[in-house]
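A further point concerns the way the authors explain their paired sequence and structure data. Each protein is reduced to its one-letter sequence and a matching series of backbone shape codes. An entry of this sort, consisting of the sequence and the corresponding backbone structure tokens, reads as follows:
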Amino acid sequence: MSQPAPEPRSEYYESQRMRMHYAVWGDGSMPPLLLIHGGQDHCRNWDFVAAGLLDRYTIYAPDLRGHGDSGWAIGSMYSLPEFVLDIATLATAIAGKLTIIGHSLGGAVAMQYAGTFPERVERVVSIEGWGPPVMEHRPAHVRMGHWIGHMHEMESRHPRRYATIEEATRRMMEANPHLTPEMARHLTIHGTRRNDDGTLSWKFDNYVRIRSPYEFNVEDARDIWSQIDSPVLLIKGAESWAVDPTKEGRAPFKDYRFVAIPNAGHWVHHDQLDGFMRVVLDFLGEGTPAATARLTDDGHHVR
């Protein structure tokens, strides 16, 4: 496994009266790169990706609200617009056009931001950040009732506690069997906090697990995505549950490439770091990306 980036410095800003944390690698002299993590994750999940990009960017990796070392939004639904708001607030303090890489929820945030503020964005890489698979439609009143019941259940739920870092690491590997023990331990060390009794719990707020009672609005998403002026790279794990965006009408971009990486699940940048970095570095180093490409099982591009 490659080595992680050197320890970043921690910075803070305020959004909606919450104290928000982000990690920084670099002194601002290089072009800015924003790394946005996914749900129930944290900014230090990017350490190995950052290591391969330090020579060309100043890197900013925020903890989304309710995650990592950022504040918890008491009474919030943790909706996508709120996450985008937080990133937009951070972006106002960063000079220059942004290159953005986001995973899952972070990929969705990246594309929403890029479509809302296209003049601020140089390039976008979205790792499975184009929305969930289309679910069986349920009436709105049923969804609302289920959501309220789930919220009430969450009020009595307490974060799970782990006696040791090894126990928490085992749980991490159960959640993603593609992880190496070294990667799982690294993610666990930075993704847990110690409780008063000496046990460990995950840093994220349990309420971030709650899904909105409103269904994913593909038409609204397409409208925002279609405003993106910069080149877009869409990355999917070949073994992931994520839909193919080119077959689901979720790629209304002016200039994009799609790549499916073999032997990778949802956490592509953890599961196949070297393959992921090759694709990303190729994209970031291009003048203009090709329209669409896929990585086959033997590792070759098919255009």
User: Anything to note?
Assistant: The first strand starts at residue 9 and ends at 15. The chain has one domain: 9-132+214-302.
